[in-house]
Specification:
Layout: H1 13-23, H2 31-44, E1 48-52, H3 55-65, E2 73-77, H4 82-89, E3 94-98, E4 120-126, H5 135-145, E5 148-152, E6 160-161, E7 164-165, E8 172-176, E9 189-193, H6 199-206, H7 212-216, H8 236-247, H9 249-272, E10 285-286, E11 292-295, H10 299-311, H11 327-332, E12 334-335, H12 340-348, E13 349-352, H13 359-375
Helix pairs in contact: 1-8, 2-8, 3-4, 3-6, 9-13
Amino acid sequence: MIPFNRPYLVGRELDNIAQAHAMGQLSGDGSFTRACHSWLERRTGTRKALLTHSCTAALEMAAILLDLRPGDEVIMPSFTFVSTANAFVLRGAVPVFVDIRPDTLNIDEMLIEQAITPRTRAICVVHYAGVACEMDTIMAIATRHGLRVVEDAAQAILSLYKGRPLGSIGDLAALSFHETKNVISGEGGALLINDPALVERAEVIREKGTNRSRFFRGQVDKYTWVDLGSSYLPSELIAAFLAAQLEEADHITSRRLAIWNRYHAWAAPLEAAALLRRPVVPSECTHNAHMYFLLLHGLEARTHFIEAMKAAGIGTVFHYIPLHSSPAGQRHGRMSGALAHTDVASDGLVRLPLWIGLESQQEHVMQVAQRVLEQA
């Protein structure tokens, strides 16, 4: 069986974990956590990076930092993972779902302004497949209407928009290091804080609502409960694993891009024959090869493809069930206009295996996929 995903180890993860144990600190915010923070701040240009135990946790912290109240609205795509909406719903806010662009499958920036109401407080963008949303337009809209911008950059580490790292453009951003991402720690995430006014409160929220970080910097003589918060820190073991991965992030991205580019060249004649549509990466975007997907002609074609590939021993998967059509999405959110492109992408999108080590088997994957597509 060729799996859809296989986690990649760079080779120093377990040594780092043993070192963390030898240094006697397994709980969070040790030397490996600090090393990860430093790497993220250096590579993204964010004002402050804070590791979290998941990207979901980082989004939840963002929602608290925005001071959302029940009935406040957050504009976002429906074509995203449930955490994007859940983080804001937990604060009582209402997700307002808008459609995606048919090319990048990112939020359609031209539909955002018409979704704004007097209750709108923020825009949450999702950089799907590591390809940037149209951030200049989105930031201009946010400035015009006095809104905050949160980047769900779960899939976008080391991706760029007009040369700027994703996660560094909005007020806040969330990264994921889940085992299906490019750079991994099993579970894990990070909050990137680009607005300096939010940095100190972010530290408090992450430390269970206490000013513990100020205490360790010698700024107060004791720490106490001062605000909302929860336990959002990952253990030092997670940070030790992640530190090894971050050191090899450029190498990981390079190898993934080679696999992505090979898929893209293979799929070109199939696209010309109208059997599928390939991913679109605008010229101003530099992506990180997070995934390679095909857009097939509807749910029936996609279901047949996945089943035929599985029968041939190759794992392929679809992606999101749109949030606007889910039970909780209908209960907690609302739509702004029709979401036709979202529905099309949800029915037709299939993701091909993409992991380091696939190189020797990729030709077989493409041969089988082409046979399935041509015989459909």
